[in-house]
Amino acid sequence: MADTPLLSVRDLSMRFGGLLAVDRVSMDVAPREVVSIIGPNGAGKTTVFNCISGFYRPTDGEVLFENKPMHRLPGFKIARAGMVRTFQNVRLFKEMTVVENLLVAQHMQAERNLLKGLLLTRGFRRREAELLDRAAHWLERVGLIEFANREAGNLAYGQQRRLEIARCMVTQPKLLMLDEPAAGLNPNETHDLDRLIVQLKEEEGITVLLIEHDMSLVMGISDRIYVVNQGKPLADGTPEEVRRNPEVIKAYLGEE
Amino acid sequence: MKGKLLPAFFAAGLTLLLGASVLGVQLQSQGIDTVVMVHGPLTWLGLFAAAVVVFAYQLIKGRVQRVREKARQGSRFRLPAFLENPAQRRLMIALAIGALLLFPFLAERSAIDIATLTLIYVMLGLGLNVVVGLAGLLDLGYVGFYAVGAYTYALLNSYFGFSFWEALPIAGGMTALFGYLLGFPVLRLRGDYLAIVTLGFGEIIRILLNNLTEITGGPNGIARIPEPSLFNLQFARRADEGYTSFHEFFGIAYDPTHKVMYLYILSLLFALAVAYIIYRLMRMPIGRAWEALREDDIACRSLGLNPTAVKLSAFTIGASFAGIAGSIFAARQGFISPLSFTFIESAIVLAIVVLGGMGSQLGVILAAIAMTLLPEIAREFNEYRMLLFGLIMVLMMVWRPQGLLPLKRPQMELKRG
């Protein structure tokens, strides 16, 4: 790791009553890296995600994003700082259209002055046109442009997943956090997702942190992998290192 | 057939039981006693006929429903095609506004007066539609803001002599402030809990107005609230010192209808302004944020939207519309008391929003008209009018549970060049 890390997690712990769901997890994510968190079911991967993205307030430890502490901020402020996430179960605005989903996501870039909007000033119109352009651009990228005016809830599952990623991307984030993006996708769709993530990294220079169960996806695109088991960090390294790590094999396959 | 017999008997029996207790007998006071008076044979005959009808309907219900299903598939209710075209729609709206502006010159005084009340409910419905229909926050205390608006004008006038036009912006601002302050603690709650707390706030405002006798006059209310003036022209028979009266200025005979007409046109303009403002808001970032929040507040947070701020904005903006409607109401009535702001008002306005179709502006306007005109039309049925009201509500639930005109998408379209 030559660069200073974009995201740095130090000794993160999360306790729910008597349950220590996350126990001193640390990780570093450098700019333009794809980093995966893997682990058996219930290992605490999503809890780590929720702590980083501000949906939980961690019991202990710190989260630094571009060297700024994030672990005390509410979720929406973390999102504004440039860390945007998706959810394990897709969370689209289902009754709104596809393009409206992308417009809502650009709320912070929109012209929010009430008077300008009510009077339809030229500045307001220009800004709205920009938002629409960016939405169209990203719909094109994820191949959903012909569904732009459809209700988001009517899209096929794989399309909804891609729309959720597009919705993150229109906010122009620095770090994209994907929570099991391949869950429920067929092999073809998983392959498309794989390509999309690589493209995002190479063409947009975005950093990706993802949780995933699909090992072929994880091994193929990750620069580094963190393994979590029962809330504790188990191992980390390149896909090759992790694959050969006996501890990891034990955690996944059980004791011999 | 046999399986239907038992429920049919049951339904008929239920009809008889309910009908007998509501229509068949009556409590009457004789001196200090209350005696049960049983109605004559004609009423009972009617009740039995009703029970027979219910019995027969239960037997053929299946067939009726099949026919209805077929009819429904045949004709899905839609706006007529000519309203889909924007230019023609604009023309239709212009014509409708023109007709509404002409209306007071053709109708009689009582009709204009009812129309003014209808317009006030249109404003209330549109305002609550922002909170309930768009932002999805169930507010059962909306009448509280209506009361704040009405009392702001009434109190400013009776203590400091503010005119309607001076008090109106203050009333709007005051209710917005109330919405903001009440919203702060309340908006952490959601769904049912929010409904209960807002219900409480609505009642607190009413009870405060009722008990602050030194300031608000308590249950006696505030009387002699003047109607608005038209550029310093007053509508009274004799104008106050330093003012001219409307009829003198134009050299026409004094007619109390002028005042009613003026109030109607004023309410119409305000209702149109409110409708336009909300139309614009729905197509602005804030309106999109409201709808997004209604659908998924966690997703909103993950995209950088501050849910509290978005909710508060809906609450505040919705409240300020109620305040303006309240001021107009006070000016129309000339007298207000806490009795005008009971929970039933909140319920009616909420019914307007739900009947019209959550979030749909045209639907809410139509529902407001229906909800205020129906009781007026049904006045002849006198004690049965609430029954009629309930019947219509039930029929609505059966036939159009999504409201008269549900919100239509999209608000914003991506057009490809």
TrEMBL record, chain A:
Gene of this entry: livG
- Superkingdom as given in the UniProt entry: Bacteria
Q: Does the keyword Nucleotide-binding apply?
A: yes
Keyword Transferase listed? The answer is: no
Checking InterPro entries in the record gives:
AAA+_ATPase, ABC_AA/LPS_Transport, ABC_transporter-like_ATP-bd, ABC_transporter-like_CS, BCA_ABC_TP_C, P-loop_NTPase
The family assignment reads:
Belongs to the ABC transporter superfamily.
What is the protein's name according to its record? High-affinity branched-chain amino acid ABC transporter ATP-binding protein LivG
Segment forming the signal sequence: none
Cite the NCBIfam families for this sequence: PRK11300.1
Which organism was this protein described from?
Modicisalibacter luteus
From TrEMBL, chain B:
Q: Which residues form the High-affinity branched-chain amino acid transport system permease LivHM N-terminal domain?
A: 5-103
Keyword Phosphoprotein belongs to the record: no
Q: What is the lineage of its organism?
A: Bacteria, Pseudomonadati, Pseudomonadota, Gammaproteobacteria, Oceanospirillales
| InterPro entries the UniProt entry points to | ABC_transp_permease, LivHM_N, LivM-like
Enumerate the subcellular locations listed in this protein's record, separating them with semicolons: Cell inner membrane
**Main localization category:** membrane
State the UniProt keywords alphabetically.
Cell membrane, Membrane, Transmembrane, Transmembrane helix
**In which organism is this protein found?**
Modicisalibacter luteus
Which protein, by its recorded name, is this? High-affinity branched-chain amino acid ABC transporter permease LivM
A Pfam family that the UniProt record links to this protein: DUF3382
Which ranges does the record mark as transmembrane? 40-60, 91-107, 119-138, 145-162, 168-186, 261-279, 312-335, 347-374, 386-402
